[in-house]
Amino acid sequence: MTPMGHLPHSWRMRSSDQMSSQRLSPPALFALVGALVLLIVAVDGPAGAVDATGGSDAIGLSAFAAIVLGLVEGLTEYLPVSSTGHLLVAQEILGLGGTEEADLALETYAICIQAGAILAVVFLYWGRIRQMIDGVLGRSDEGRTVAMAVIVAFIPTAIIGLFIQGFVRDHLFGVGPIAAAWLVGGLGILGLTRARVLERAGIEFDAITTRQALAIGGLQAISMWPGVSRSLTTIVAGVLVGLSLRAAVEFSFLLGLITLSAATAYEGLRHGSGLIDTFGVATPLLGLAVAFVSAVIAVRWMVSWLEQRSLNVFGYYRIAVGLATFAALGAGWL
Question: Which residue, among 86, 116, 115, has the nearest Cα to 314 in the 3D structure?
């Protein structure tokens, strides 16, 4: 795949202006998640991570566990590795939940801390978001094109999600299906790179059509399968329908903004009170703050990495974590 560094210099300058590049090696970035998950097991222990019985002060989730889950969410939300899959496996490793009330609160928590990742994109891409707002208000033609494309792309995901969310929850929210999705996605990345599919020249935002946006939104629905990755499906879909890689990556971030906002608001309105009753207010807010900071780091790193390198690192990572998860299942550790 042609690295982003081989794309027009104007975009590389724009990326540097929007976000001061901060290079982090992928092994260090991914190892940080695993190391902290192991650390919470060592310090709190699976039994101490969550007190599923609640308590007089709505105690249910330790501050340390909230930090780790927030870190996992922030680091993985916009990378093509699946934040949902990582969060579900992390919860399984830590032995969180155990009661219907605690399981529902954990599921709500995993969705609501996405607000931290949402704020990260608002912070990093405020210039583009302001342009979209100007477009809606009739002050920017390019902003109107981008805003309409993002809205159109969100519609099929929302409709499909309403129909299949029950099936996904009942059949795909498990460690085995997540590991399978990691493996398939990893092999897919390596296959696309080898076939040079992601090297295709493409259009920019000001030329995106409604049909292209609808196609991206439809393919985004595949990411409801935990482990697939919303980021991966939207980036690949964007390139396949004719966007440049740069445009596909940025469009993925902006589409994630509206998709994650809708999911967070929907889940918060439905089960937010139960989340507070079970876990209180302080620890969820702590997790949200950690998700924000770590998402800023992850997005900055991803853009910087792809300026010179390919998506291959994510393919190898997905294969490695998928195989490790299957091994842990076979050994009875999960």
Answer: 86
